[in-house]
């Protein structure tokens, strides 16, 4: 089962500052949750679990600032399609607090300069480090990359496995959700758009 959403351009909304996380308080809440679930948080195996869970939440929700642009001049380039795929990140569904794995592919047109490749992976990780929905994640990555590149000629395709759908509810283990955000020439040039989609799909393979 695969669903596809095509996102139209919207204005960027900068992430809101996140207050500091009180890991001691989070650990206490996890202990209370274990009690309510019929567990003994003091027993062997669980004694340090609340602290570990609190530390994980702190790490996950503080991914750092979004990466700045690193661009290199390549004066001979004009309109070359660049696709960066194979990026896999984990995020959390904000509706159920259950993980989702997102396979990310981005494309842009290189015009006289190129963007450092590692930045794409850092951007993909940055926007995954929060409570998310795949549709918003796709838009946020696209809008941030457009800012890095300095043009709107950006496309982002995301293929997600949502454990909130695979392990609960309908329990559709093979379900995949695909979201697509296109802007600039990727919106107006159907051939360019199809080239990007074909390349992205090829990188996903049968996963």
Number of domains: 2
Mean pLDDT: 86
Biggest sheet details: 6 strands, mixed
Anisotropy-based shape = elongated
Number of strands: 6
Q: How would you characterize the overall build of this protein?
A:
The protein is an alpha/beta fold and 207 residues long. The protein folds into two domains: 23-60, no CATH class; 68-204, GTP cyclohydrolase I, C-terminal domain/NADPH-dependent 7-cyano-7-deazaguanine reductase, N-terminal domain (GTP Cyclohydrolase I, domain 2, 2-Layer Sandwich). 37% of the residues lie in helices and 31% in strands. It contains seven helices and six strands, in the order E-H-H-E-E-H-E-H-E-H-E-H-H. The protein has helices at 23-36, 49-60, 118-128, 134-149, 163-166, 185-188, 190-204, and strands spanning 2-7, 71-93, 99-115, 131-132, 154-162, 176-182. Strands 1-6-5-3-2-4 form a six-stranded mixed sheet. The longest helix has 16 residues, at 134-149. The two termini are 13 Å apart.
Primary descriptors:
alpha/beta, GTP Cyclohydrolase I, domain 2, 7 helices, elongated
């Amino acid at each position: 089962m695969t669903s596809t959403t095509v996102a139209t351009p919207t204005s960027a909304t900068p992430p809101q500052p996140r207050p500091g996380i009180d890991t001691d308080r989070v650990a206490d809440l996890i202990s209370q949750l274990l009690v309510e679930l019929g567990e003994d948080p003091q027993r062997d195996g669980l004694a340090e679990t609340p602290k570990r869970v609190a530390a994980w939440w702190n790490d996950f929700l503080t991914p750092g600032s979004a990466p700045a642009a690193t661009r290199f001049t390549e004066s001979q380039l004009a309109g070359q399609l660049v696709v960066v795929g194979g990026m896999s990140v984990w995020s959390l569904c904000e509706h159920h607090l259950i993980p989702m794995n997102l396979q990310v592919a981005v494309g842009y047109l290189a015009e006289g300069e190129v963007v450092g490749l590692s930045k794409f992976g850092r951007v993909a990780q940055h926007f995954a480090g929060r409570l998310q929905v795949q549709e918003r994640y796709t838009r946020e990555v696209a809008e941030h990359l457009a800012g890095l590149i300095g043009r709107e000629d950006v496309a982002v395709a995301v293929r997600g496995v949502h454990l909130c759908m695979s392990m609960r509810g309908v329990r559709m283990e093979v379900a995949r959700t695909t979201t697509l955000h296109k802007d600039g020439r990727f919106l107006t040039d159907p051939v360019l758009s199809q080239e990007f989609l074909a390349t992205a799909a090829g990188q996903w393979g049968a996963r």
